[in-house]
Amino acid sequence: MSSFIRGIVPVNQYGSYLLPILTGIDQSKTTGGNVDNRAMLNWEENWNTQEMKTMLSSGSKYCPLPFPKSLRLRTCGKGYMKKKRMKKLNRRMRRLRCDMEEISEEQKKIKEGQRQVREKFEAIELECEHLRKETNLIIQQSMSTQIRLALMFQILKARENQEFDKAAQLTCALREVIARENQQRNASKN
Fold first, then answer.
1. Domain limits at 138?
2. 88, 182: one domain
3. Among candidates 47, 49, 34, 45, which has minimal Cα distance to 2?
4. Is residue 1 part of a domain?
């Protein structure tokens, strides 16, 4: 009596592989270990069918090889697994490098923005300082103008009241104030 499982090896609940039951194997001969060549050919032909490929790609619990996974890994070689790990590692490293480049570009943009803001603040500070100086100059000029106007008004009042000696004193004081202002203006220009 013989049966056929289409060349796949089912996995039991413990993860070990069950031996395939191939077409053409006589149950009485299995104890002796004899296998018919036709059975092996049939098994290989059925393995290459589209149905088998879809069954295996769909994530079923069947494996095409009749020996344990640990043995298969040992026979495939550790180099394959190492290459696979290295590929994953290289992929991850490439992603990290790309991320680092993006972060460095963003940091450069941020630094450039900070530099521009700093330059704008410095320009604003210079302008404020210039405005302060102009304001102080205008205040000084308005004060000196008020002093001159007050002196001129007192001179006119003294002449009106015919106090000529007081008018002469106020005129001298006015001349001194004007001379002092001219000296300050000349000193600030130099």
1. 80-189
2. yes
3. 34
4. no
Q: Is residue 4 part of a domain?
A: no
Residue 3 lies in a domain: no
Rg (CA), the chain: 53
Structure tokens at 189: 């220009």
Query: Does 125 share its domain with 102?
Result: yes
Q: With 50 as the cut, is the pLDDT of residue 149 above it?
A: yes
Is there a contact between 74 and 55 (Cβ–Cβ < 8 Å)? no
pLDDT at position 69: 57
d(CA 188, CA 42) in angstroms, rounded, equals 111
Could you read off the pLDDT of 61-118 as tens digits, one per residue?
555 555 555 555 555 566 778 888 899 999 999 999 999 999 999 999 999 999 999 9
What number is the average pLDDT over the span 115-137? 95
Token pair belonging to 168: 């002469």
- Residue 131 structure tokens: 């405005």
Residue with tokens 């000296």: 183
Output the CA–CA distances (angstroms, integers) from residue 127 to 31, 49, 120, 135, in the order listed.
104, 84, 11, 12
Let me know if residue 34 belongs to a domain: yes
Give the amino acid at 76.
C
Domain count, the chain: 2
pTM for the model: 0.42
| pLDDT value, residue 74 | 54
